[in-house]
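Work Package 3 (structural annotation) set out to generate three-dimensional models for the target panel prioritized at the project kickoff. During this period the team completed the workflow that converts sequence records into discrete structure tokens, so that structures can be stored uniformly alongside our sequence database. As a representative example, we reproduce one entry of 219 residues exactly as it appears in the project archive.
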Amino acid sequence: MPGIADILTLGVPPDEARVLCIFVHGRGQTPEEMEVAVIRRLSAPDAAFALPRAIGKSWYSARAIDPLEDTTRAELAVSLAGLAGTIADLRDKAPGTPLVLAGFSQGACLALEHAFAGRAKPDAVIAFTGCRVGLAGDDRPADLSPGLPVYLSAGSDDPWIPLSAFAEAAVDLGNAGAALRCDVFPSRPHEVSHAEIAMLETVLRDQSLGRKPRMEAPR
């Protein structure tokens, strides 16, 4: 059963941070890969990072665009509970410090599902190459906090997250009242681009300064 095996911590200690960030890796990946691909490319000197590691390198077995079956629901429940616990633990260490929930690919999907579940609410969500888990006709939570800043990105030809699923997630976020920015990158490989790194950096900076994220980084 998927879940959190351990957590890689980076940056400053939480009680010294001005902003907290949980970054969730994708299927078949590790926190160390996300450290190289994302965290080391950021300029965020006052941020504390927590990178949870999925048991078996996967947060759930199915593809995000498969129908929601009982097995997927059970695996999602375990992974989401672990993510909620990680958020609560980090906030216990740094009360009142803003927290950004971010992820790539399957990690982005998990971050979105957490936001829609409406518990342990983050102050912003960054979903690099993400979508909802399941299909539009499935019974899925929709308890997103109105006004929640969300950045959602996609590649035009991504092998894991088709544009139709990305667009469906954008509609769900818009209908729920998210403060949403979306970007589609033509022919971008299945990776985090420089423009996406810049977006996360600006969101972390705004949050560390006590500002609502403006998500004004250029593409």
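The CA atoms of residues 23 and 178 lie 20 Å apart.
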